[in-house]
């Protein structure tokens, strides 16, 4: 039997008011809460009016970026409603945060001050620039000690977060989790969307007129809990997560695939995961941004995924009330619908004055209708980079059979490293043992020592590989993912790749396009003079490029974790396969060093002898599937463990959480510490092995790492170590490999691999 | 070449050269200026540019020549020549801003 | 001479015929003004079986096609179509090609200056063992073009057709067979090329005709397409292409990938590109009443400087328009030239495309 996941708390701070109740009331009344931005602009936006009131006495929030404060306020509210004290759950409580633009206000301020000649950056200032900072602050503030992470798939991020949290609970890896997202309104985001001509004059009117979106800001968090546990403690149940599905369009960086195929895939996968037929859906909470492309494509996708039933299901968009709250949107709209369901109201689409051409469904003009009680409902969320996410919620039970896969294997590896493209160059460099450092000038004009990866030669890799018009991270990641797929024997055919997905782990989510866009933005006093690269500002544009180039339309996400992101993302991919979302996933990580990032490291005085640029991709699949297609896997995933450091975000990471993650992984692998042959992934082998002596009851086995030769690759370093451990020629091939990482953003992760 | 034709050519040549250089840079086109025939369709067929490229072309023309292209004026975005016609119409006495 | 599988259908509907690339084609069905109006305002169905059609399994196709055409075949994404050309060893145009990546096969539609046998020989020379299938005889190509072409395509194959982007391919079941549909078109209006097995060609044409009539259109010949192409400044290999043959002077660089290693004509084309070509093609319009024909000369200051290579009636502009080859130094729009003699009627070079078709101002499903 599959474990059921229910919702026991929601918290939202938005332009509709300080809590979820205010939002639900506005949505139920179909009352737009958008206001004019200013005297000169005809644009409207949904800004949070009184954030301190929403904090409701929550201390220690004032010095954080606004997206962190919005998250704190919403998360605190959700936990209060659920009546849950995370500390009591220890490692059984998790957190999946989400954001689109993350700390954009801090990043803007930082760019402006760098332009004005600022020469130093405090540790707190550097921390504030991270997209992973909200998760770190939330985990510390509420004492969430299990898995934690940040989904950065732009506008679909918080539905993605909800799905990942749900998977962890279903599989018994967690008992409860806080999932949601936050984004603060920022002037450069407004300028970007204006530049894309995606915004409208006046308040937005999804599926109606005017065409275009209005921006909003919000924090929205939801408490998910295993149903038995929630019932036992007598918690009020607001709804159940029945299914979840994602896809990538593999089409364009900002325009959705007009056929609706990509969005339709995510919807169908969510329905399948829930075990729900298209005719059973009673309501659709639309992505409904108001743009021409979205509203038309979403309409078409619903017709494709649901068939004729789509024509009679009521659909409404809460964005007409709050504007587009980006990374918070999915969780906010889910919370609004849950509360409307409880009140028995099916919400109308505010500002709807008759359908726009191309919009042919029932968009529920005001007033609302009675909630179709007893029926499941659908939540859509779509994003730049072609990422689509959908969730099915409602009263249970949904599907009861357990479709989860047991054994996960690593069946192929693709690498682009400072040693060159491919595993042969990588192994040759490690055999030679000569450090490969070079030099690059940072944004402040100072020369920095780095290990850069040579440009992959696309045509030599495959005549079908097109790396033109990609930024460096996408070029490296696409080449590595291509090599991994080729190594796995997955042909370059659309049907072979339709269900193959891509997981990306990033250490830092600030893309080269972000730096370029802001440089241009500040150089011209907030005037946008280039727009082509704005869609590439979002971190999941990298995954979008990879999926497009390699025709990967399967399960897809991008997460940001800080150092160690590659291994953490690989573990998350293994969870997704076990949860039945995909038979095969490419899990990748890429490190890139923008001039801004190098300058920031210098200004913050961070010690790192030679940061590296590299990309690593691992093909993961269920052992059953690998067997069926006669693959020859390299290793089996024996056990995984996670633990989040709940100490002060500014303090050094504690050893306790690190050891807990390793212990967890060994326990799940049913393995005594003595069986481990080698440890890899460690950023500081001396210190980390010392820390692990309590787990190993003595000296841990030898550590293995590539950084002395290839430099320090934050995101994919652990994956490179693992590749070396698996690929080492000769006698010293270890049988059991423990890979363990500790991130300065709180999460520690350990995975035990058994060589095959 | 008649004098009138010659004067028109000089003005047009200068605008075309600046526009092509900017377009190649901004749109990352794999061509040299002489490879771009001025009548080739920019969007859809021909160069096959998309709606995002179209927005960049508008910003390119606006920032390079100091003229404003209305949102619904897609007729000027058909080819380099139609863009140049628009610039010459808007700026009868000089190209550069 | 190859006979189109649709010949009898068009003959029964009163078509007049001509030979194009060694294929007998329905040149005209109705009066040109009526045919023109159908495409611009409604939809017209024509026989485009003058295309040579080849299919090959995807495994070897990329290598074969990469050796044949100037564009980068390897980078055509699944379900998409590349518009490029084939040249001979001297870099002279041979065929205008749509190359479609239809997942497990590549499909090539050629409008060529050579007959079936010659084109087939070029394909065979590039890849005799690539599983090449010549569908030119076994299939017909039906062209559906016009402001409402999408309505006909939707009626024939379902609403899915509406989601296809320009230059894409999809397969649809039809009467127990498979129709390969390419969304393309060279009229500036919506357009679909339907590659249909000969056995089902007549039924498909009948259905398309019935649907076109319902949408205010009907049948047309390929001659009106020549006018429509020039008015929309789509390259026409049978007009300016046949007269000029040099892809660089014709402005077809956009069909080429200059990084590609090998294809016929590559070195000749790169040499001419480096040296700088001397003449290039420019659009012009003539004053009402002026007689313009292919081969007319253009004069400036008493000297003959150029030559007309294509002529058409523009019903939107209400005058004759054409394309002329002029020295690069004089190849600018907005200039006046005397035609045929120094004191002949003055024609004006113009920026192309000179018209703004309605199909470009609306999206398919907004109608």
Description:
The complex is a heterotrimer of chains A (about 750), B (about 100) and C (about 375). With about 750 residues, chain A is α/β, with parallel strands linked by helices. Chain A folds into three domains: about 5-395, 3-Layer(aba) Sandwich (Peroxisomal Thiolase, Chain A, domain 1), CATH 3.40.47; about 410-635, Peroxisomal Thiolase, Chain A, domain 1, CATH 3.40.47; about 640-755, 3-Layer(aba) Sandwich (Peroxisomal Thiolase, Chain A, domain 1), CATH 3.40.47.10. In chain A, the strands form four sheets. Chain A has a 21-stranded mixed beta sheet that branches. In chain A, strand 10, helix 12 and strand 11 form a beta-alpha-beta unit. In chain A, helix 1 packs across helix 14, helix 17 crosses helix 20 and helix 24 packs across helix 25 (about 685-695). The mean pLDDT of chain A is about 95. With about 100 residues, chain B is an all-alpha fold. The N and C termini of chain B lie far apart (about 30 Å). Chain C is an alpha+beta fold and about 375 residues long. Chain C has two domains: about 1-230, Probable tRNA modification gtpase trme, domain 1 (Gyrase A, domain 2, 2-Layer Sandwich), CATH 3.30.1360.120; about 280-350, Elongation Factor Tu (Ef-tu), domain 3 (Beta Barrel), CATH 2.40.30. Chain C has a six-stranded mixed beta sheet. A six-stranded antiparallel barrel of chain C has the order 15-18-17-16-19-20. In chain C, helix 5 (about 150-155) packs across helix 6 (about 200-215). The model of chain C has no long low-confidence stretch (mean pLDDT about 95). Chains in contact: A-B, A-C, B-C. The interface of A and B includes residues 195, 254, 255, 469 and 531 of A.
Set down the secondary structure blueprint.
The complex is a heterotrimer of chains A (756), B (97) and C (367).
Chain A (H helix, E strand, L loop, with lengths): L4 E9 L6 H9 L6 E2 L7 E3 L4 H5 L10 H17 L3 H4 L3 E6 L5 H12 L7 H6 L4 H10 L5 E4 L5 H14 L5 E8 L3 H9 L19 E2 L1 E9 H6 L6 E10 L12 H14 L8 E3 L6 H15 L8 E2 L2 H4 L6 H15 L1 E2 L22 E2 L6 E6 L4 E8 L13 E10 L2 E2 L1 H10 L5 E4 L5 E4 L7 H4 L10 H17 L5 H4 L2 E7 L5 H12 L17 H10 L5 E5 L4 H14 L5 E8 L3 H9 L10 E9 H6 L6 E10 L10 H14 L9 E3 L4 H12 L6 E2 L2 H4 L6 H11 L8 E7 L4 E9 L1
Parallel strand pairs in A: 3-7, 4-5, 4-6, 10-11, 10-14, 20-21, 20-22, 25-26, 25-27
Antiparallel strand pairs in A: 1-8, 1-9, 2-3, 5-21, 6-8, 9-15, 12-13, 14-15, 16-17, 16-23, 16-24, 18-19, 22-23, 24-28, 27-28
Helix pairs in contact in A: 1-14, 3-7, 5-19, 8-14, 11-12, 17-20, 24-25
Chain B lengths: L2 H25 L23 H15 L14 H11 L7
Helix pairs in contact in B: 1-2, 1-3
Chain C lengths: L1 E2 L3 H6 L3 E5 L2 E6 L3 H10 L2 E4 L4 E6 H9 L14 E7 L5 E10 L2 E8 L3 H11 L6 E2 L4 E7 L3 H9 L10 E7 L2 E7 L7 E7 H17 L3 E2 L3 H9 L5 H8 L21 H10 L3 E7 L11 E4 L2 E12 L4 E9 L8 E4 L6 E5 L7 H4 L6
Parallel strand pairs in C: 1-3, 4-14
Antiparallel strand pairs in C: 2-3, 4-10, 5-8, 5-9, 6-7, 7-8, 10-13, 11-12, 12-13, 15-18, 15-20, 16-17, 16-19, 17-18, 19-20
Helix pairs in contact in C: 5-6
């Amino acid at each position: 039997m599959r474990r059921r996941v229910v919702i026991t708390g929601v918290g939202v701070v938005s332009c509709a008011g300080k809590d979820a109740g205010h939002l639900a009331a506005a949505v139920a009344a179909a009352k737009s809460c958008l206001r004019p931005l200013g005297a000169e602009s005809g644009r409207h936006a949904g800004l949070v009016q009184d954030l301190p009131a929403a904090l409701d006495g929550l201390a220690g929030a004032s010095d954080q970026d606004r997206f962190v404060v919005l998250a704190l306020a919403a998360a605190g509210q959700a936990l209060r409603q659920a009546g849950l004290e995370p500390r009591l759950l220890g490692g059984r409580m998790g957190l999946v945060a989400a954001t689109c633009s993350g700390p954009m206000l801090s990043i803007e301020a930082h760019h402006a001050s760098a332009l004005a000649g600022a020469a130093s950056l405090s540790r707190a200032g550097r921390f504030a620039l991270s997209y992973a900072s909200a998760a770190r602050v939330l985990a510390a503030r509420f004492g969430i000690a299990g898995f934690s992470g940040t989904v950065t798939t732009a506008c679909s991020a918080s539905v993605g977060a909800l799905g990942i949290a749900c998977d962890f609970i279903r599989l018994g890896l967690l008992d409860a989790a806080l999932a949601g997202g936050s984004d603060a309104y920022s002037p450069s985001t407004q300028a970007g969307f204006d530049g894309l001509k995606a915004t409208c004059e006046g308040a937005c009117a999804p599926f109606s007129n005017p065409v275009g979106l209005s921006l909003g800001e919000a924090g929205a968090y939801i408490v998910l809990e295993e149903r038995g546990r929630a019932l036992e403690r007598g918690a009020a149940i607001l709804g159940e997560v029945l299914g979840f599905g994602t896809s990538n369009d593999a089409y364009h960086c900002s325009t959705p695939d007009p056929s609706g195929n990509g969005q339709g895939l995510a919807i169908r996968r969510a329905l399948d995961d829930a075990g729900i037929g298209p005719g059973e859906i009673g309501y659709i909470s639309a992505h409904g941004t108001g743009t021409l492309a979205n509203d038309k494509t979403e309409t078409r996708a619903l017709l494709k995924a649901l068939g004729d039933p789509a024509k009679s299901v009521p659909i409404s968009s809460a964005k007409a009330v709050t504007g587009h709250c980006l990374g918070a949107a999915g969780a906010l709209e889910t919370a609004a619908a849950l509360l409307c369901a409880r009140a028995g109201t099916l919400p109308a689409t505010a500002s709807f004055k008759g359908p726009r051409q191309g919009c042919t469904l029932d968009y529920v003009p005001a007033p609302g209708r009675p909630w179709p009680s007893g029926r499941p409902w659908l939540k859509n969320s779509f994003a730049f980079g072609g990422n689509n996410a959908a969730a099915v919620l409602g009263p249970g039970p949904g599907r009861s059979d357990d479709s989860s896969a047991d054994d996960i294997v690593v069946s192929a590896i693709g690498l682009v490293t400072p040693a060159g493209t491919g595993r042969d160059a990588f192994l040759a460099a490690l055999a030679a043992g000569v450090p490969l450092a070079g030099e690059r000038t940072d944004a402040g004009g100072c020369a920095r020592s780095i290990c850069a990866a040579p440009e992959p030669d696309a045509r030599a890799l495959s005549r079908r590989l097109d790396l033109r018009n990609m930024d460096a991270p996408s070029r490296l990641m696409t080449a590595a993912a291509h090599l991994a797929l080729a190594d796995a024997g997955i042909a370059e055919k659309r049907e072979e790749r339709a269900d193959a997905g891509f997981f990306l782990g990033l250490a830092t989510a600030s893309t080269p396009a972000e730096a370029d866009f802001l440089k241009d933005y500040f150089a011209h006093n907030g005037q946008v003079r280039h727009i082509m690269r704005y869609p590439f500002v979002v971190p999941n544009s990298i995954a979008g490029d990879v999926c497009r180039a390699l025709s990967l339309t399967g399960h897809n996400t991008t997460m940001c974790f800080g150092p160690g992101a590659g291994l953490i993302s690989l573990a998350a991919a293994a969870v997704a396969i076990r949860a039945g979302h995909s038979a095969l996933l490419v899990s990748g990580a890429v490190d890139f060093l923008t001039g801004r990032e190098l300058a920031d490291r210098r200004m913050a005085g961070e010690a790192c002898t030679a940061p590296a640029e590299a990309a690593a991709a691992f093909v993961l699949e269920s052992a059953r599937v690998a067997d069926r297609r006669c693959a020859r896997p390299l290793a089996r995933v024996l056990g995984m463990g996670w633990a989040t450091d709940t100490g002060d975000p500014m303090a050094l990471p504690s050893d306790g959480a690190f050891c807990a993650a390793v212990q967890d992984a060994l326990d799940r692998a049913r393995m005594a510490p003595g069986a481990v042959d080698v440890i890899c992934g460690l950023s500081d082998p001396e210190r980390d092995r010392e820390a692990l002596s309590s787990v190993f009851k003595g000296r841990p086995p030898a550590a293995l790492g590539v950084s002395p030769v290839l430099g320090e690759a934050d995101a994919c370093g652990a994956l490179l170590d693992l590749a070396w451990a698996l690929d080492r020629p000769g006698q010293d091939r270890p049988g059991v490999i423990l890979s363990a990482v500790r991130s300065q953003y709180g999460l520690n992760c350990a995975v035990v691999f058994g060589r095959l | 070449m008649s004098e009138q034709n010659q004067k028109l050519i000089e003005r047009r040549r200068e605008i075309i050269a600046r526009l092509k250089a900017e377009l190649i840079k901004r749109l990352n086109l794999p061509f040299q200026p002489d490879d771009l025939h001025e009548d080739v369709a920019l969007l859809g067929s021909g160069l096959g540019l998309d709606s995002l490229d179209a927005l960049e072309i508008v910003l390119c023309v606006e920032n390079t020549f100091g003229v404003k292209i209305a949102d619904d004026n897609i007729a000027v975005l058909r080819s380099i020549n139609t863009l140049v016609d628009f610039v010459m119409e808007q700026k009868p006495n000089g190209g550069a801003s | 001479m190859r006979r189109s599988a649709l010949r009898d259908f068009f003959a029964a509907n009163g078509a007049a015929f001509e030979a194009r690339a060694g294929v007998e084609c329905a040149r005209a069905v109705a009066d040109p003004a009526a045919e023109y109006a159908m495409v611009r305002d409604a939809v017209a169905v024509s026989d485009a079986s003058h295309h040579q059609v080849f299919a090959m399994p995807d495994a070897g196709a990329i290598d074969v096609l990469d050796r044949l055409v100037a564009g980068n075949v390897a980078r055509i994404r699944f379900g998409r179509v590349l518009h490029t050309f084939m040249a001979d060893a001297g870099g002279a145009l041979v065929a205008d090609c749509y190359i479609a990546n239809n997942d497990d096969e590549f499909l090539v539609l050629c409008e060529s200056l050579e007959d079936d046998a010659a084109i087939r020989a070029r394909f065979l020379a590039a890849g005799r063992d690539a599983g090449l299938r010549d569908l030119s005889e076994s299939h017909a190509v039906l062209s559906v073009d016009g402001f409402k072409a999408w309505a006909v395509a939707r009626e024939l194959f379902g609403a899915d057709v509406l989601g296809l982007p320009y230059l894409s391919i999809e397969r649809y079941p039809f009467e127990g067979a498979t129709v390969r549909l390419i969304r393309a078109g060279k009229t500036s209006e919506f357009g679909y090329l339907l590659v249909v097995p000969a056995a089902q060609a007549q039924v498909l044409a009948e259905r398309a005709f019935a649907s076109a009539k319902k949408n205010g259109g009907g049948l047309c010949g390929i001659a009106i397409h020549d006018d429509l192409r020039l008015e929309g400044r789509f390259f026409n290999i049978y007009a300016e292409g046949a007269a000029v043959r040099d892809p660089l002077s014709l402005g077809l660089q956009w069909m080429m990938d200059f990084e590609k290693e090998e294809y016929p004509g590559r070195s000749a084309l790169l040499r001419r590109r480096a040296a700088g070509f001397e003449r290039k093609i420019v659009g012009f319009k003539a004053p009402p009443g002026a007689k313009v024909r292919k081969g007319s000369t253009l004069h400036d200051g008493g000297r003959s400087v150029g030559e007309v290579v294509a002529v058409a009636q523009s019903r939107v502009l209400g005058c004759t328009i054409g394309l002329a080859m002029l020295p690069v130094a004089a190849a600018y729009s907005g200039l006046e030239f005397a035609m045929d003699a120094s004191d002949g009627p003055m024609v004006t070079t113009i920026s192309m495309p000179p018209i703004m078709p309605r199909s470009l101002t609306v999206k398919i499903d907004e109608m």
